[in-house]
Amino acid sequence: MQFWRDLVSRTFSGSPPKEPVAVLLASALKDLSQRTNGQSSLNKAWFTKIINTREQYLNNSPYVNIDALERYAENTYSTLLYLTVSALPMASLTVDHLASHIGKASGIIAVLRGLPLIAFPAPPSHHSNPTGALGLPSGGRQGAVMLPLDIMAQAGVREEDVYRLGADAPGLRDAVFAVATRASDHLITARTMLKNIRQGEDIGHEYEHKNDEGHAHEGIGHQSGSDSTDPKEIDKALGVLMPAIASQLWLDRLQKTDFDIFNSGLRTTDWKLPWKAYLAHRRGEF
Questions:
Q1: Alpha-carbon distance values, 117 to 113, 176, 187, 229 (Å)
Q2: Rounded to whole angstroms, how far apart are CA atoms 71 and 67?
Q3: In Å, what is the CA distance from 281 to each residue of 81, 183, 184?
Q4: Rounded to an integer, what distance in angstroms lies between the CA atom of residue 216 and that of residue 33?
Q5: pTM for this prediction
Q6: How far from chain centre, in Å, is Cα 22?
């Protein structure tokens, strides 16, 4: 992962390496600076946070509890949304708050969706491009049940049962339900916030990350950086918050399978997604 740290550092310093990602990032930084007369930029620390968090779990280290899984989602998926919002440009604690909840839901769901693939990894490829060349661990742990350990303990799930019985492992569906419920709670919270904002009411709770690095927005772009509830800000950033639609559709499908995480239908594309996203965007919802 040091490759990515160096790439980000060199790109932000104005000397991007001749790599596609670096060239595109440099172009995005230049474009954002030109559109805002040098007042806005992407936050380098957010890129570093994503890289460091991904590195922590490259070897499929277990999440010790559901809060650790949520922190992983916040530091990766939510942070990607923060970067996207800042590229609009926009600096709004309210939009960041919504993005935090939606990113947490998306990250938790991504871990659930990947559970069968990580528990039963495909055989190693023998072509000329080894996984090590892609920055993946070549000697990492093979086969892991990436559910929070506290949830597994509460549901009575044992890794060896999952390897032996798959979807029929005792307690597995209960554990999947518990983790999916946390993702659903974040989506419900975000939609409740949006409803309150539209009605001119208080959003209902504090943004727990408002004092974290990168959320002190004063002087960035044309927004105030306050925890305002101007619906126009939400409308401008609505496209960035659309991952909530895909997340909800997947949770609905999971529920229809009675939380059978190994059901092959959960790894297919939902044909309704473009239509649902279009309708939600027209209605100003997610």
A1: 8, 15, 25, 41
A2: 6
A3: 17, 21, 20
A4: 19
A5: 0.89
A6: 22
Which two three-digit tokens encode residue 138?
């070549």
- CA 133 – CA 111 distance, rounded (Å): 24
Distances from the Cα of 149 to the Cαs of 52, 70, 75, 143, in angstroms? Answer: 22, 13, 20, 15
Query: Which two tokens mark 184?
Result: 């659903």
Identify residue 64 by its one-letter amino acid code: V
Rounded CA gap, 247 and 280, in Å? 13
Label residue 127 exposed, middle or buried (CB < 10 Å: 0-12, 13-18, 19+): exposed
From first to last of its 286 residues, what are the pLDDT tens digits of the chain?
A: 999 999 999 999 999 999 999 999 999 999 999 999 999 999 999 999 999 999 999 999 999 999 999 999 999 999 999 999 999 999 999 999 999 999 999 999 999 999 999 999 987 766 555 444 434 344 444 589 999 999 999 999 999 999 999 999 999 999 999 999 999 999 999 999 999 999 999 888 999 999 998 887 654 433 444 455 688 889 999 999 999 999 999 999 999 999 999 999 999 999 999 999 999 999 999 9
Angstrom distance (rounded) from CA 254 to CA 259:
5
For residues 209 and 74, the answer to whether their CB atoms sit within 8 Å is yes
228, 239 contact by CB (below 8 A): no
Q: How far apart are CA 78 and CA 98, in angstroms?
A: 9
Relative orientation angle of helices 44-56 and 2-12, to the nearest 10 degrees: 180
